[in-house]
Known about the structure:
By secondary structure, the chain is of the alpha/beta class. It folds into two domains: 14-65; 74-384, Bacterial extracellular solute-binding protein, family 7 (D-Maltodextrin-Binding Protein, domain 2), CATH 3.40.190.170.
Amino acid sequence: MKFRNGLKNASFGRIRVSESLAGLASIYAINRGKMNKQTNINSQQDNDEIEDNIMKKIISLGFAALFGLSVMASTAAAGNIKWRLQAYEPPSSITTKILAKMADVVRERTDGELDITIFQPKVLGYSGWGVHRVVSKKQLEAAEGITAAITEIPAYGIFDQPFFTNLDEAEKGWYLIKSDIDKAAQEKMGLKLLKGAGKPVAGWISKKPIKTVGDLEGLKIRTWNLPLSKWVERMGGVPHSIPYSELYTSLASGVVEANSSSPVSVIEAKLYEVTKYYNKWPSGIVIFVTLVNLEVFNALPAKVQNILVEEANKLELEEWKLQAAAGAPAIEKMKEMGMTIIQPSAADLAKAEAVDKSIREEWLAVAPPEVQAMAERVRAALGK
């Protein structure tokens, strides 16, 4: 398994630079000779333009030779295809460990034909938030993101709906509409969905207790999508949009005072070091998705495609199981680390849940018809 913390470690293919440069020199000599033969019939300006064009071609060819004909560093030199996959969470997280396992198994099963390197957010210059857009533009081969951030594909917003009250329901809903979501992602953004899995229902971590609705007044809360921001505003809080990679430092410095977090994420990211309370307010499910640029995926040999999809499907199932098993122990671990668990009153929870439900239903009411139909299928399957 390969993790990379800097571009200096990225591999750009096995190109024999000396041979490439020698070839370029030959190209220049041949074309320069042709240009000299034209001296008597062309003006000096024409010759300068010809030479300029030759040099432009050589420079272009040089970059192509040095960087494997792609700014994406996705080379297929000597049968070795290199991908960069940006993780969303720390190396210690279940999500990133699954990505690393996928990279290892795929590399082994393809005899190194597909070599995937895992990068942490911002190492390549991209934050976790909105990284799907980078993949869509072919600036990165693959990345992990969260459904709540992929607003260009409304179908992902289904997992922000209040009818998911636990991880089992989210998993059932995921497999019910996964193929539809994959199709939507391919059509709208040129993204291939490899896998997805959720974390246990989140609560709110904070630097001070949030016992009542009134405690939310003026509280600086990190949010990551419009429905959540609306909820914070309607509850009297102040929403702040901050990348997950900056959450720890933002909590430590007081830029934000609270965040919606799964207990598992609290432990994995050591957020217990910068917060004191875990408040059981409604927050919903977070689904982590692994996406690859569709053209990049389609460029793989069929055999490699099949192996990648097969292993991604296997590890997706494993990830759902691991996340479910990690929930209860994570809450106990938070207590061990000194965090206090806050249980709001039934009356306060009812107020918060009513606001949450109204916001989600507002979103669903204006969603495209096909998304509404998907949501109804999920709702019916869950008996909600």
